[in-house]
Amino acid sequence: MDDHRQQSTQAAIADIIRSIPRGDHLTAPEVFEKAKAQGLRVSLSTIYRTLNRLKAEGDVITVSGDRGLRYEAAEEGPAHDHLICLGCGLTIEFFDELIRGFGKTVAQRKGFDHTTSRFDILGYCENCKSQDSSHRLLAINESFEAAREKVSQALKELAMSQDFVAARKFNKAYSPLKSAITALAQSLEDLDNLAQSLSMPAEAE
Ligand SMILES: [Zn+2]
Ligand SMILES: [Zn+2]
């Protein structure tokens, strides 16, 4: 690609990045789609190279995430930071003087000349968190039900065994008693697993 063409491609891609609504962040393939839609004849690798150059020149900044880097226009004025959900990719921008000051302090302490600092805070959003906890609730409820089912089965077998004894059919009392013991042993194992899952360190709530 000659110099002139490279310059105009870079300008066109810089325009695309600037046209992203504030708060949105695009991946390189998404930038590529937009470039194609505008009739730009570039390859994905050109997009990557150009985005890197724009970043190096300070026109574009990157935001991390589990789906790879995303890009947005560098802005004038106070920089913002991001909360990024690892579950659904939701990205929330925020401004916080305290966190900015923190960047400066760390830089000073390490003998760095501070120019800017940006923080990407990774975690799980409200929505992903509540989906996760309702999954857990469902699984725990099912375990309780299964354990109670086994215990009540054992109680029935016990009663049956006792009835045989009352009827002096001692040899017939043995088998339901063994079944009751087996069911109780199984339910104890299940209850133990259940107790372990409940004592798991709860995630930040
Ligand atoms: Zn942003
Ligand atoms: Zn989420």
Keywords:
6 helices; Methane Monooxygenase Hydroxylase, Chain G, domain 1; Arc Repressor Mutant, subunit A; 205 residues; 11% strand; 3-stranded mixed β-sheet; binds zinc ion; Dna Ligase, domain 1
- What is the general shape? elongated
Ligands, deduplicated:
zinc ion
Number of domains as seen in the coordinates: 3
- Largest sheet properties: 3 strands, antiparallel
> What is the level-2 CATH architecture name of the largest domain?
Orthogonal Bundle
What is the chain-wise order of helices and strands?
HEHHEEEEHEHH
End-to-end distance: 53 Å
The CATH topology assignment of the largest domain is: Arc Repressor Mutant, subunit A
Number of helices: 6
Estimate the mean pLDDT confidence: 87
Low-confidence stretches: none
- CATH level 1 class label of the largest domain: Mainly Alpha
Q: Which structural class fits the helix and strand makeup?
A: mainly alpha
Notes on the protein architecture:
The chain is mainly α and 205 residues long. The chain has 3 domains: 1-75, Arc Repressor Mutant, subunit A (Orthogonal Bundle); 77-123, Ferric-uptake regulator, C-terminal dimerisarion domain (Dna Ligase, domain 1); 128-198, Methane Monooxygenase Hydroxylase, Chain G, domain 1 (Up-down Bundle), CATH 1.20.58. Helix content is 60%, strand content 11%. The chain contains 6 helices and 6 strands; from the N terminus they run αβααββββαβαα. It has helices at 3-19, 28-37, 44-56, 97-109, 126-166, 170-198; strands at residues 26-27, 60-63, 70-73, 81-85, 91-94, 120-123. Strands 1-3-2 form a 3-stranded antiparallel β-sheet. Strands 5-4-6 form a 3-stranded mixed β-sheet, with no helix packed on it. A hairpin with a 5-residue loop joins β4 (81-85) and β5 (91-94). The radius of gyration is 31 Å and the shape is elongated. Bound molecules: zinc ion (ZN) (2 copies).
